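Interim report to the steering committee. The following record documents the input for Zinc finger protein 593 (129 residues).
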Amino acid sequence: MGKSKQTRNHNNGKKKNIAKTWKTKRRTKDLDQIHSDMKPETAAKLLHQEVDYDVTGCAQHYCLHCARYFVDMRSLKEHFKTKVHKKRLKQLREEPYTQEEAERAAGMGSYIPPKMIEVKTQPIEENME
């Protein structure tokens, strides 16, 4: 299947471009947002959320690195073994892009290669089952 070329549905003025809505439907957090979530104080809040019935799994099973909620602990553990999670960990190893790095790239200083950060899968609390 390819990109949807349909632009209009009869006289419905709300849907101007269907392809754009499909692209942004499953948008996840960017890597720099996830890096800010990985800081200890925000990570503790995200991993120990209140029960929220509007979110999958009542917001009790959350993957910090992929920014996804899971139905139960078993599916979260299975997710840790998947290729998607491992790829995300590999992407998060590189330090996030900063304003100083942008200035150095523009010629306002000498180039320093980005540092690598060691990222491990979050610890699993067994008592949540």
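DSSP finds six helices and two strands in the chain. The committee is asked to note this result when reviewing the revised timeline.
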